[in-house]
Design brief:
The chain is an alpha+beta fold and 235 residues long. The chain has 5 helices and 9 strands; from the N terminus they run H-E-E-H-E-E-E-H-H-E-E-E-E-H. The strands form 2 sheets. Strands 2-3-9-8-7 form a 5-stranded mixed beta sheet, covered by helices on one side. The protein is globular and about 50 Å long. The chain starts with 6 loop residues before the first helix and ends with a helix.
Length: 235
C-alpha cells in the first residue's frame, strides 16, 4: 500500500486556506521539544527547572575537565515562559505523542502546531518502504524541502501507482495562534545545558501576546537570519 506524504505538502493540502502563504515549516517530534519554563525541567517534567539551572551552572564551572558526554544534537524548538500556564504551553505534546510527527508552521495568517494523523498499522511481514525507513532515520525529524525535491526529481513517485492520486497525510491542529497574537519575531542566541555538542546556538524567537516564546533553534547565524527573513515574508 502506498505511503502518505506529510510535511509541507500535507499542511498545504489539508489545512491552509486558499489565500494563505506558508512562510516556514519546522518538523519536530516530542523528544526534540525542550522547555525553559519556570516550574518545569528542561524535558518538560514538573518541578525540575531550578535543579536543571544549578546543574548547568556546575557544568559551566568544570568546563573542559568534565567527562560529560557532549554528543547530543540541539533541540528543534524551545518553549519559554513564566509558568506552565503560559500561552505557548497550549502546544505542549502529551506523553502518548512519542511517535507523532509534528510541524510548527508560520503562515501569513497564523502560527500553529500541526500533527500528522498516522496511517493504520501495516501488516506484519511487509518489508519497510523507503518512506518508512526515512521516518525511522532521525526519529521522524526529516528535511521536508528535500522530500519535495525528491518528488520533483521522480525519486519517490516510483512508490506510487500510476494514474492514481498520491495519498497525503491528514493533519490535526494541536495549537493555533492568530498572527494578531504574535507580539514580535526576531533573532536571538541561546546557551544550551551541558550535554549538547554545541552549547551556543542561534534561534528565531517568536513572542506571543502573554510574553511566552517559541524559539526555533539554528546551529548557524546564517540559517537563523534566513528564518527571520522568511518569517517576515522577505524570502
Amino acid at each position: 500500500m502506498s505511503k502518505q506524504l506529510g510535511g509541507v505538502l500535507a499542511v498545504r493540502h489539508g489545512w491552509c486556506r486558499p489565500d494563505e502563504v506558508i512562510r516556514f515549516a519546522v518538523p519536530c517530534v516530542r523528544s526534540s521539544i525542550r522547555y525553559d519554563i519556570s516550574g518545569l525541567s528542561w524535558e518538560g517534567t514538573s518541578g525540575g527547572s531550578a535543579i536543571g539551572r544549578v546543574a548547568t551552572a556546575v557544568e559551566d564551572l568544570v568546563g573542559a575537565s568534565s567527562e560529560h558526554d557532549n554528543r547530543l544534537s540541539p533541540p528543534r524548538v524551545v518553549y519559554s515562559g513564566p509558568n506552565p500556564q503560559a500561552q505557548i504551553m497550549q502546544a505542549r505534546p502529551e506523553a502518548e505523542d512519542a511517535d507523532v510527527l509534528f510541524t510548527w508552521v508560520l503562515t501569513s495568517h497564523r502560527l500553529a502546531l500541526l500533527a500528522e494523523v498516522p496511517e493504520p498499522a501495516a501488516e506484519e511481514g511487509i518489508s519497510d518502504s523507503v518512506w518508512q525507513k526515512a521516518r525511522k532515520f532521525g526519529a521522524g525529524v526529516r528535511d521536508f524541502s528535500r522530500d519535495v525535491v525528491d518528488i520533483l526529481q521522480d525519486k519517490k513517485l516510483g512508490e506510487y501507482p500510476p494514474n492514481a492520486p498520491v495519498p497525503v497525510a491528514p493533519v490535526a491542529v494541536r495549537a493555533e495562534f492568530p498572527l494578531q497574537q504574535v507580539r514580535a519575531i526576531n533573532r536571538t542566541t541561546r546557551r544550551l545545558p551541558g550535554g549538547y555538542a554545541q552549547r551556543d546556538v542561534f534561534a528565531l524567537r517568536i513572542e506571543l501576546g502573554d510574553g511566552s516564546v517559541l524559539e526555533v533553534i539554528s546551529q548557524t547565524e546564517e540559517h537563523a537570519a534566513r528564518l527571520e527573513a522568511m518569517a517576515h515574508g522577505r524570502q
